[in-house]
Amino acid sequence: MSLGVAGKPGNVDGQFNQPNDVVVGPDGSIYVADGHDAQGMTTANAVAEGNHARATSRISKFSPDGKFMKSWGGIGVKHGEFRTPHALVFDSRGRLWVADRGNHRNRDLRSERDVPRVALTRSAVPAASSSRATRST
Question: How far is CA 126 from the centre of its chain?
Answer without folding.
Answer: 15
